[in-house]
Amino acid sequence: MSNTIERKKSWIKTILTTIPNIIVFLLIAGTIYVGHHTGWKLPKFSELSGNSVNAISDWCSDHLVQESKCVECKTDLLPKATEFGFCKEHGVAECVIDHPELAQLNTEAKLPQYNTAAAINVIARRENNPVDTLHSKRVQFATIDSVTKSGVNVDVVSESPITEMITTNGELIFDPNHVALLSSKVPGTVAVVLKNIGDKVKNGDILALIDASQVGQLKSEFLKNIVQIRLQKDNVARLTPLAATNAVTKREIFEAETSLQEAEVALLSTQQFLANLGFVLPEVTNSDDPKVLATKLKFLGIPDEIVEKLPLIAQSGNLLPIFAPFDGEVASSDIVLGTVVDTAKPLFTVSDPSKMWIMLNVRQEDAQYIKEGLTVQFFSDNGKQKTSGVISWISPSVDVKSRTLKVRAEVENKDKRLRDKTFGIGKIVLREESNALVVPQEAIQSTADAQYIFIRDKNYFKPNAPKIFHVRQVRLGAKKGRNIEILAGALPGEVVVTKGSNVLLSHLLRSNLGEGCCAEH
User: Has residue 42 got a pLDDT over 60?
Assistant: First the structure.
C-alpha cells in the first residue's frame, strides 16, 4: 500500500515539473506563429487596446503622429510630387534647379544667378549615391508646438557673395629681376662712397668709386695702342710708294702691315676689357692729341659734377665707378671708405621695391586646380600686409622633399608698403560668386551615401495642413564664416532646418530601418 502511494506521489511530482516547460514551449511556439504572420512587427498599441481610448487608438507609432493624419501611411493626404530621378549634371536626386516646380515656395521659384554645374566641376567635391532613396522620405510632426519642443530652428536659403579658394603658405619677396648685388669687377680700394642705405637711385647713378690699379693699366694700354696704330699706319703709308720703285722689299711691306694689324687687335682687346668694366670709350680720330685723350680717359665714366667734388686723394686715373643698373633704392650697403675690396664680396644691394613676387607652396593634391591667370590674395603672418596678384608661372615639377608645387604671382608695390621676405598665407581664388546660395553650416547632415538638408513644406502654416519637412540631397561648395554654399538641392527663399537638423536625421535613419521616417511628438 505504501509503495502505491509513493508511486502516485512520484507521478504527480513529474507532472508538476513538466508543466512549466510545456507552458514555455507553447509561448515560444505562439511567438513564432504570430511573428511569422505579422512580419515580426509588434502590433500597434491601438490594435492591442481596442477602441476604449480614441486618442490612443488614433496614434501612428511608426511615425509618431495621429494615424488619421499620417501622410506616410495615408499617402492620399499629401501625395508625393512627381519623381524625376537622379540629376547627373548637378549630382542630386529630384533636382530643383532643373525642376523648380519641386521647390517649396508659395511664390515663383527663382533659379541661381550663376552656373552651379560649372561651379561643381571647379574642384573635386563629395558626391551623392545615385541609388540612395532616403530623400524620398518626409519628416512629419504632429503640431507646430511639437516642432518647437523638439528644438528645431529654421532659416531661409539666401544669396550672399562667396569666394572659393585654395589656401597655402608662401613668401613675399622682391622680384629677382629687379634686385642687383653689386661688387667691384676688379680688386681695389674704396676711394669715394656716394650712396648709402635707403638712398634712391636712378639707372646709371654712381654709388661708389673704387681705386683699382688694373683700371689705370688698361687706360694706359688703350693710349699706347692708339699711338702704336698711328705709327704703324704712318709706316705703311711711307713704305707703300717705295715698293713700286723696288726701294723696299715686299717682306718689309708685309711686316709693316702685320704690325699694324697687331696694334689694331691689341686696341680691340683693351677696349673690350674696359667695356667689361662698364666704361663707354670716347670716339678717337687721327687728329686727337694723345695728351688730350689721356685727360679724357683719366676720369672716364665719371660726370664732371662728381669730379669737381673729388678730394685730391681720390683724383686718380684708376677710378672704377659702381653703377646702379636700374631705378630703385639701396637696400643694403657693406662698404667703408678705404676698405680693400675684391670681386667676390658684394658692396651694394640695389632693389626696385615696386616689383614684388608672391611665392607659394601648393600642396600636390591641389596642384591640378592651379592655372596661370588665377588671382592670388596674400596675407602676412602678422596681418599687417595684404596684397594680391595674378599667377604668372607654375613650376613644372613637385619638390621631392616637401611634395609641394612652386607657384609665382607678380604684384605691384608702388607705395612701398610691402616688405621683402615676408611670410604669410596665400589664397588662390578659384571662383567668385556675388549671389551664391548659402545656408548655415548646421543645416547640413550626411550619411555614408549622401548629404542632406530638410526643407519646410510650403503649406506648413495653413490650418489643418500636415507639418512636413522634405528631405533634399545637396552638393556643397565654399564656406564663409558660419555659412556654406549650396550648389544644388535648394532655391532662394526656401526654408531650411538649421538647429535640430541632426534630430530629424536620426529619426529618419531610425524609421528607415522599419517603415518610414518619424519625428518626436
Answer: no
